Every structure is written in structure tokens, then in C-alpha cells.
Amino acid sequence: MSSHLLHRQFPPSFVWGVATSSFQIEGAPHADGKGESIWDRFCRQPGAIADASNGDIACDHFHRLDSDLDLIASLGVNCYRFSIAWPRVQALGHGDFNPKGLNFYERLVDGLLRRGIQAFATLNHWDLPQGLQDRGGWNDRDTVHRFVDYARHVQARLGDRLDGLTTHNEPWVVAVLGHEQGSFAPGIKSRRTAMQVCHHLLLSHGLAMQALRADGATAELGIVLNLTSSVPATAMPADIAAAQRADARSRRWYADPLFKGCYPEEVLAELGADAPVVQPGDMGSIAQPMDYLGVNYYTRTVISAGGEAWDAKGRGLPVSDMDWEIYPQGLADLLVLLHRDYPGLPPVYVTENGGAFKDQAVVNGRVQDDDRIDYLRGHIAAVASAMQQGVPMAGYMVWSLMDNFEWASGYLKRFGIVHVDYDTQVRTPKASADWYRDFLKDWRG
Ligand code: FCB
User: Fold this and answer.
1) Buried-most residue among 160, 224, 315, 326 (CB within 10 A)?
2) Is residue 29 part of a domain?
3) Residue 86 lies in a domain
């Protein structure tokens, strides 16, 4: 479908945004008494980050807030998704809160509202205070309660001006990449720990939802999951069964507790002694009604019983610079599956979607990233298709506003629709930013 017709598929109430996260763009790691985060610490570990970089400067967003807000407004989006760095708000994650830390986010939120842009804040986009990691981090049940305190504190100060408040971004990444594979902070390699961490993240989500509501929340409350469609490599029964198991581990392990109040039995059986300790009442606490579900989608996962990796590139299929297969249909399939599996599914936002590409340099003030335009157009069309199939879609947010610190890949991977020159901090909207702006102009009519 051409962009020309695509915009007509979306109602006037649809939310269109761009997304970022604190550690990936802010820099200013010590400003106004900010504490150390587990990502500050992890970046110092030799070999942890592909280009041996860190988040000390990143996009220097902390010092460029006003011009970055103008940049966001220039795109014509009606929403901005950002995250709050917990160690700015509470240096150690326990003890005193730091009012100066919230001043920055207050300026951000007020600046968005002045520009007519909805503010969607995420409380945990991975930069846990190191002070809590020193006490056991997400593996320690006490962190659950520290998170609830932090959530309440943020809401007390900003809640009246937020449109959306997300507890966690992508618990799978924190649990599995951070605590099982150890490729992300805090770099732990234990499946047992990862599963307990996961349970504590979900529990803290549920308890925070309850506490925020009890305190009179006015923002929409929800969680953001990274989800994929797990597809069998062939029609062989063994591959189909393997894909079902992968789907249970990566999607249902997170969504079943949230929407059904239980972990999938087959995954619990597979985990055996590595299954998390669940205290009486936990599952009921996790399954709080949500105002929305956020879905981050980048690629599908193709599974074979033998466990061989799916080499999309080797097969000549389109891939991004992360070597992730570009497969928009997977987003529609995933959304339809969620709608089928969870009756009463709340409104769904695609809270992240986008691609890293080897962008050409800035030439005459332009970066011609046609591959990213194709990516975005294809996935927005997939959202329209899901909507036509009855999925209650509420919004779509591009990852990312601008090139930034891509975790263990450092600055080597560029996801932005705005190019960042890290030597000068000059921002240059890419052709994809122009495309998005034009698309939104057509949609507004
Ligand atoms: C997601 C993260 C986001 C970004 C994208 C590419 O997993 O939430 O911060 O790194 O991947």
C-alpha cells in the first residue's frame, strides 16, 4: 500500500510518537548528584561494549533538552516516549530522593505539553542504581519494594502531567541478556538468577500498578514487552513443537502472568530447579488490569528443533544492520496472536519499532536512508492490518528519535530517524524523518 493511502487507515485519535531512553541519550552521569547506574558500571568492564564506549556523553541530551524538544516537535508527532533514570531521582535506589533529578524531567514534561505533545514516561529502561545492585539488584526481593517507592515518588511530582506511565521496558532483556547470558548489565550468567529477576520485575510491575492507582493515577498505566512471532523453520512436527516452546518462553512467560495470573506450565517444567520462587499472592499481584500494553517489535524468530540459528542474511532475506530479518508481517501476526490469546486485551501501543542501517554520511545536509523508510512504511502497514483484524491498536512509536548509545553495540549501530554527529552533537534529520513528518501531515489532513 502506498504511503498515500496508508495514513487513511488510522483514526484521528491515533497516537504517533518517537522513542528514546535515558541512558542511551542523556549523558551527564554526575549532574546534580546523579548516582551510578549498572550501565555506567558495566561499560567499564573490558570487552563489554563493542567499541569500548560508554554513556558519559551519548547525545548530550541532558544539556540540549530545549533544542531536542523543538526537534521532536518539528516531526509533527503527538507523543514522545522517554525514560526516567532512577539514579537521577534517587542516587542509590534507596534512602534519600534527589529533588534536583526530577527537575530535569519536569522541564522535559512541561516542554512537551507546551508543544502539544503527550508525555509517555518509562520508569525502568534498565539503568538500575548501582547502589541497589550492590544489595543484590533485581534478584533481591527488596528491590521490588524500592521500585514501588520510586514509582510513587515520580508520580507524586509528575503524574498530573503524564499521559502514559510504563513500569518496565522489556523484562526479557533485563532477565535473559542481563542475568542469563550476561551480555548486558549487570553481566550475570545464571539462569536461576535470571528467572528470579524476571519474577521480581513482574511482581514490582503489579505492586507499582496497585500503589499508583491507590495514589490516584491519572496517566494510563502499563508495561512494555519485547515480543516476536516464533515461526517453525519447516512444517515438520518437531519444528512446530520447538517453535511453540520458544513462543512459551519468550512471549507467554511474560504475557500469561500479566493477563492470566500464571506462568506457562510447560516452561515451569522445563526450568525445574531454576524456576523462580513465587510467594503466595504474587501471581494475583502481577495480574493487575492494565490501561495499555506496549509492544516492542523488531523481527521474527525462526525456530528449528535442532536449534540451528536461522541465517536470514545467508538465505538472501532482507536484514537490518543488526542482522535482524526485516519481516513486517511478523508484527501483524504477533498482534493478532496476542488478541486471540488474551481476551479483553487492553489498547496496544507499538512502543518501539525501527531499524539500524549503515546510513550514508551526511551529504549536503541529507542522509538518504531509503531502507529505513521502507522498514517504517512496511511495519506501519502491518499495524493497519492488525487493526483491520480487530486488534485494539492505539499508537505507534518509532525507535528511535535519534542515533544513540545502542547498549553492547555502543555507537556502532544507528537507529535514529535523526542523524547525530558524535563529535559535534549536530542533529540532522534523515530522509526517514522527512517521510514520517509528511506521513503524519497527510494523516492529520
Ligand atoms: C530495544 C530497547 C531499546 C533499543 C532497541 C534497539 O530492545 O528497548 O532501548 O536498544 O532495542
Assistant:
1) 224
2) yes
3) yes
Catalytic residue among 26, 36, 170, 180: 170
pLDDT tens figures, 239-270: 999 999 999 999 999 999 999 999 999 999 99
Answer whether residue 158 is part of any domain. yes
CA pair distance 15, 444, nearest whole angstrom: 11
- Residue-wise pLDDT for 377-413, tens only, equals 999 999 999 999 999 999 999 999 999 999 999 999 9
- In this structure, the residues whose C-beta lies within 6 A of any atom of ligand 1 are 21, 24, 169-170, 173, 226, 296, 352, 399, 406-407, 415
Distances (CA, A) of 36 to 39, 40, 55, 86, 126: 8, 6, 11, 10, 13
Between CA 137 and CA 175 the distance in angstroms is 11
Whether 220 is a known active-site residue: answer no
Q: Domain span at residue 58?
A: 3-246+291-444
Q: What is the mean pLDDT of residues 223-247?
A: 97
Q: Is residue 280 in some structural domain?
A: no
Q: The domain spanning residue 96 has which CATH number?
A: 3.20.20.80
pLDDT, residue 244, reads 97
The alpha carbon of 397 and the centre of ligand 1 are apart by a number of angstroms equal to 12
